[in-house]
Amino acid sequence: MRLPVFSWLFLMAIYSLFLTIFVFGASAPYFSNQQSLLLQLKNNLMRTCNEGHVIGLDLVDEYISGGIDNSSSLFSLQHLESLSLAYNDFNYSHEIPSEFDKQANLSYLNLLNARFAGQIPIAISHLTSCNFVGSIPSSMASLTQLKYLDFSNNKFNGSIPNFSMCKNLTIELILASCKLKKIPDFLRNQSYLSYLDLSHNQIFGEMPIWIWKLPNLVVLDLSYNFLVTLEGPILNVSLQSQILRSNQLQGQLPNIPHVKYLDFSGNQLQGQLPNIPHAEYLDFSGNQLQGQLPNIPHVEYLDLSGNSLDPSILANISWSLPSIRFIFLSSNKFYGSIPISICNATNLELLDLSNNSISGTIPQCLIKMTGTLGVLNLRTNNLSGIIPDAFLDNCGLQTLSLNKNQLEGRLPKSLANCSWLEVLDIGNNHIEELNLTWPGLQIVDIASNNFTGTLPIILLLSWTSMMDRGNEKRTSSKTSIPKSRADALVMVMRRITSRTNVLDLQLQKSFFCGSKAFLVSLKEFLVDTDLYAVLQRYVTPSLLWREFAEVCEFSPMALNNSQYFCDAVNKDD
């Protein structure tokens, strides 16, 4: 006679006969908590629980006949890593619970021959720690009504079954990270397939021409493989998105007349860009492309950084790219000046011309675009002259990166209008004065300029966004910044530095070393920033003082008499 689930769980809790429980490092309160949880399981598992350390439940072949519903306290065992309900009998009258997605740590789930009924809940696909191993059962190929199949991010071995009988795969087929060596042949017959993801595999060699002939294919992702050739032309009118980043594609691209989204970054493509008249998103960064831009009147996002393009592209941007919003043209060996015609790109939100050999001055009209321009990155060029005093009253600039140029003079007063500024990167120039405040600053680099005098502590204290406010929420109007603008800011910040909340104080000695009192007051700023927490991990207050004093060439007596500084640093800590 089979025991009902309640009686069985009661015996399990008392005798531990059929249950294996692994408890790591549980103190007495935690152990008591585990007992409580097991008693809750016995009482039809209706209540929730607090944090626990049960990580494994082995319930294989235990003649469990009752169901497990979504209110079960089983789903409160949030540390559970392994669960097996195999070879029980749910009599085809109970569905698989949909609450499995609450167990984010679950890496092993066995429901073999448990006789569940109904559909497999989508929640199981949310178990991102669950890596399936072994081969994909060939019997799955007989599921002729299958429409959606996702085997991504597992550790399958062997070959993919021939799904040629599954002619209803009309939505998605995702075989990402499945160690595939080639594109499966059964895909030839998937005439209704609209989304195909074979990324992060080991597919090498040539792209088969037949893949372009799948009549309803809309999205194709073959990124992070080892493909070397791409033949065309690609005339499939349904294909809207091609993602082949980080392969080994060589030679010239074929014509791709209908695609709107193209990402071929990180390959070895050569020659000119092909005809792509309907493209809206183009990323060909990190290739070996040359020459001019083709006719791409609808493109909004263009990343051609890390190529060898003709510098005359800059002069043609406004008329050849009337809809452009994001331009990445860094590391192209451009020379000459920034053409005024670039200011006709009135929708521009991001301009990155960094790491080139551009000379001359910054056009005033470019600064006047900061009503819409959120990111301006001109670092590592040969620009000279002053920064134009033309920032608009409604300046929306968030990133200004002018590092490693030959700019001079003082920062323009109108830059104070840029109240959303988060990245100020003006190091390695000949700038002479800094007297502006921006409360939203996150990254500051003002190193190696011609500053003189002392650095007012009030200036540092005005950079309040660097301070650690705990859980305090910022309530500025920046919540209204368009998502695209925010995304663009993240892109450029990553290119500038991988750090956040950075203050670079490698300034001229005459500017930094006004007095010992300044160094003590600097603690008031540092203690409220992430930087101070980092310093505390690696240096003592005494060593910190010596570092400051040596930079400022204080006397040996000052080096040795650091107690008052240490007291200031340690105060209230």
UniProtKB/TrEMBL annotation:
Q: Does the keyword Lipid metabolism apply?
A: no
Q: Where in the cell is it found?
A: Membrane
Show the Gene3D superfamilies listed in the entry.
Answer: Ribonuclease Inhibitor (3.80.10.10)
Which superkingdom heads the taxonomic lineage of this protein's source?
A: Eukaryota
Q: Which UniProt keywords apply?
A: Glycoprotein, Leucine-rich repeat, Membrane, Receptor, Repeat, Signal, Transmembrane, Transmembrane helix
Q: Where are the transmembrane segments?
A: 6-31
SUPFAM superfamilies the record matches: L domain-like
Q: Major location, coarse class? A: membrane
Q: Which GO terms describe its cellular component?
A: membrane
Q: Which InterPro entries match?
A: Leu-rich_rpt (IPR001611), LRR_dom_sf (IPR032675), RLP23-like (IPR046956)
- Spell out the Pfam families in the cross-references: LRR_1 (PF00560), LRR_6 (PF13516), LRR_8 (PF13855)
- Report membrane topology: Single-pass type I membrane protein
Q: By what name is this protein known?
A: Leucine-rich repeat-containing N-terminal plant-type domain-containing protein
